[in-house]
Amino acid sequence: MSDELDQAAALEELERTIALANRKRPEMQFTGACYNCEESVDKGLFCCPECCDDYQRIERAKQQRRVA
What we know:
By secondary structure, the protein is an all-alpha fold. It has one domain.
């Protein structure tokens, strides 16, 4: 028969499993191309910091248009 500590551990494991199953997954996946200008990249999501900044600026503008 399990005691209170075993039950608490089981509940904690269940809550952790549920939280991991419901976590937000990364939306951007490595594709081999810059997300902004589509230039070929070996690693990462953008070819340069400027493209990253431009992409983030564009996405913020899109979100602002959705809210308004």
